[in-house]
Design brief:
This protein is mostly beta strands. Helices cover 0% and strands 51% of the residues.
Amino acid sequence: EVQVVESGGGLVQAGGSLRLSCAASGFTLDDYAIGWFRQAPGKEREGVSCISSSDSRTYYADSVKGRFTISSDNAKITVYLEMNSLEPEDTAVYYCAAGSCTWRIQRDEFGSWGQGTQVTVSS
């Protein structure tokens, strides 16, 4: 069974950093790409970043470029999202999912969603 589990969320002050983890099971990172998405209250779920480990492609939403870094550890079947210079606007539930990584980072190209992890950035 394809599963992903997020962890690492929390409360941080503006300008701070957090590292999210997405632990996968039931597949390898060569089989599927991993995408990170976020959903703030009252807003649509949006793509943040994705990584295709099989061909080393990564993509980022414009809103996080230069601040967030996605990486993978194939041995641990885990994908990380390093988030720096966090802003209150980054507050959301962050989800990871397995699927197909393109520059669009589209929800409908991903399935097998995790339960999400809350990130709260205080001003």
